[in-house]
Design brief:
The chain has about 650 residues and is mostly beta strands. The protein contains no helices and 36 strands.
Length: about 650
């Protein structure tokens, strides 16, 4: 029997008095009850203790109100460090499903005040004959929800219902695997009021290769095709340090059952990468090529929306480490026609990027450079920056309990000095200092300045010269059962045309959590805006947030907020009051053939009031409620034959 693929650690000695899971009893209200004993608290929720044909990808245990130290063993391997806590449950996510056969799950308590242990034997894949290396599996799931809104201003609203079915089924035989995925959605509030397929994917895998059809993804070099997710087909091959892809996909996003493989408006792409052995780190070289059509594209550097286009682009990228310096460089070329309906036709251009990083004398340095010609473009990367040259430099270091970092960058648009457009430069530099002393509040201070100006403006084009300054600071502290954060931010924008405007914002947030199941978070915020012209305006905001676990599966959440707005000339004087409370009950139960179902029933109320002290006719208020039910049922399992 093959063991699960989990980290192995020696567990011959379990030290008593290890770190506690929580900081007190799980209790909402006054008066903390004594910590319950662990012996009667431990319960295996998933997987169920019975022979089955499921894929087991996680282990869930109910520990009740117990907060003492616990150790989780699976087939003798200690996985405690990989366990996360969700309320009164411990959850361990397994990288690979447990292999067919018998497995032993142990939960140990080493607390001298309440020692205990629990053991469970779980059978995986016991239904059907073993052997042969053939398997049929399902990793599907169904989600459904329904809600009803009611209140003093709600009349005749229908029950809103929605559902989604995620299908993931497949079959394996030795190194071959066939997998089919699909997603189907229904909402009675949608105009169609019918079940709609939103995605599908069929994939045939064999050893290191695969053929996928449907909603596929392709990745080339960053300048040509950083990520292309469309409807189409992709062939992938992985092996011996080499990864290669060939794809044909639709230029347009496709939904429903349309194939998306029309000979028109399509993109053909190919990419390959190989890792070469190096003294410090492997050198990876990647190449990619894309060719096809684009129904429309926008360029970040030119701020325009273009019509139908077509073209091709190729790129080569190298990344590695040489003599202590990390280097990533790419060069790309394109021939692109931004308007197939007319214009000057296709134009060729180039782009390049360079990134380096190195540690010198305890200081971490990094720099970057980008050049993108005005006509460079790729149908697989329509939002890429073009017609821009920029570089940046940053450095950071730490000394004792302090850290200091600084950065500078400059960009220049209109790289070929086209006379019909201005040359625009953008400079940005800043610095950040942080101080963190154990058992003391942590301090952070930063300053940032940005300057945008234009030159060589065409006739009748105004000169641009804007300067922005931002100063911010934060002070934070975390105690045993509370934490607080105080932040302040001041900024000024000096527009050469409109004048200077200023903004000041301050916030104080506190979180109190005397028990693991109870938290209370009050906060205060203030913002003052002084525009270049007109009156200043103040906004004050106070909020109070509550989260509480009443019982194991019953939670209470609430929030109240008060907002005040007023202007210095009296043109604005208003208040908004909002409050909401939500009570939810979550249940989970097992059935004979599938994994546990999960259901959540929630009841919430909200109150909204707006008061205008200048004009009472604008006052309004409303009270509404929402009753909702959501259900999730996983259909996971496998059959070995």
């Amino acid at each position: 029997m093959e063991r699960p693929r989990i980290p192995r650690r020696a567990v011959s000695v379990i030290i008593a008095g290890a770190t506690l899971w929580g900081g007190g009893p799980a209790w909402c209200g006054s008066g903390a009850p004594p910590v319950p004993a662990v012996n009667a608290q431990l319960r295996l929720v998933s997987p169920p203790q019975r022979p089955g044909n499921r894929l087991v990808r996680r282990v869930v245990l109910d520990i009740g109100e117990y907060r003492g130290p616990l150790v989780l063993l699976i087939d003798g391997a200690d996985v405690s460090s990989l366990v996360r806590r969700e309320g009164n449950r411990l959850v361990y996510e397994i990288d690979q499903p447990l292999q067919p056969g018998e497995h032993r799950i142990q939960l140990l308590s080493t607390d001298p005040a309440g020692p205990g242990r629990a053991d469970w034997n779980v059978a995986i894949g016991a239904i059907g004959k073993q052997g042969g290396g053939r398997e049929i599996y399902s990793r599907s799931g169904l989600s459904a929800s329904a809600s009803q809104v009611f209140g003093d201003k709600v009349r005749g609203s229908q029950v809103a219902a929605s559902a989604s079915l995620n299908v993931d089924v497949g079959a394996k035989s030795g190194p071959a695997e066939l997998e089919a995925k699909g997603s189907f959605a229904y909402a009675n509030t949608a105009p169609a009021d019918k079940i709609e397929p939103s995605s599908y994917l069929a994939e045939l895998k064999y050893a290191g290769g695969s053929l996928a059809f449907g909603d596929v993804s392709f990745r080339g070099t960053p300048l040509t095709a950083p990520s292309l997710a469309r409807r189409g087909a992709v062939v992938s091959v992985v092996g011996a340090g080499t990864t290669a892809q060939v794809a044909q996909v639709s230029s347009n996003p496709v939904t429903g059952w349309e194939t998306g493989l029309s000979s028109k408006e399509r993109i053909v792409a190919a990419s390959a990468s190989h890792d070469f052995a190096g003294a410090e780190a492997p050198l990876r070289v990647s190449v990619s090529y894309v060719d096809g059509d684009a129904p429309g594209a926008s360029g970040a550097g030119v701020s325009t929306v273009e019509g139908a286009a077509n073209g091709r682009a190729a790129g080569v990228q190298g990344t590695g480490r040489l003599w202590g310096t990390g280097i990533t460089a790419e060069a790309a070329w394109s021939r692109y026609d931004p308007d197939t309906g007319g214009g000057s036709g296709a134009e060729g251009d180039k782009a390049a990027t360079l990134q380096v990083d190195r540690a010198i004398a305890g200081i971490n340095w990094s720099g970057n450079y980008l050049y993108a010609g005005p006509d460079f473009a790729s149908v697989a990367n329509p939002g890429a920056t073009r017609d821009r040259q920029q570089f940046g430099l940053s450095a950071g270091t730490g000394f004792g309990v302090s850290t200091l970092s600084a950065s500078f960058s400059r960009s220049r648009d209109n790289v070929e000095d086209e006379p019909s457009r201005p040359v625009v430069t953008n400079d940005s530099y800043g610095a950040t200092y942080a101080l963190s002393v154990p058992s003391w509040p942590a301090l952070s201070l930063s300053y940032l300045r940005g300057m945008v100006k234009s030159a060589s403006e065409p006739a009748d084009t105004p000169h641009t010269k804007n300067t922005s300054d931002t100063v911010s600071g934060a002070l934070s502290y975390a105690g045993g059962v509370w934490s607080a954060n105080l932040s302040s931010n001041w900024s000024m924008l000096d527009d050469g045309q409109a004048g200077a405007s200023k903004t000041l914002s301050e916030q104080l947030a506190v979180t109190l959590q005397p028990w693991a199941s109870f938290s209370l978070s009050p906060s205060l915020a203030f913002t003052r805006s002084d525009p270049a012209s007109g009156p200043s305006q103040d906004t004050r905001l106070g909020t109070l947030t509550l989260s509480c676990t009443l019982l194991e599966s019953l939670t209470l959440d609430g929030q109240a907020a008060l907002t005040q707005n007023d202007a210095s000339d009296g043109s604005v004087d208003s208040e908004q009051r909002n409050a909401s409370v939500r009570l939810s009950w979550a249940a989970q139960w097992a059935t004979k053939f599938f994994l546990a179902r999960q259901a959540t029933l929630s009841l919430s109320f909200s109150y909204d009031q707006q008061i205008d002290h200048r004009d009472s006719s604008q006052d309004q208020s409303s009270v509404s409620g929402l009753l909702g039910l959501s259900v999730f049922a996983p259909f996971e399992g496998s059959y070995q034959f």
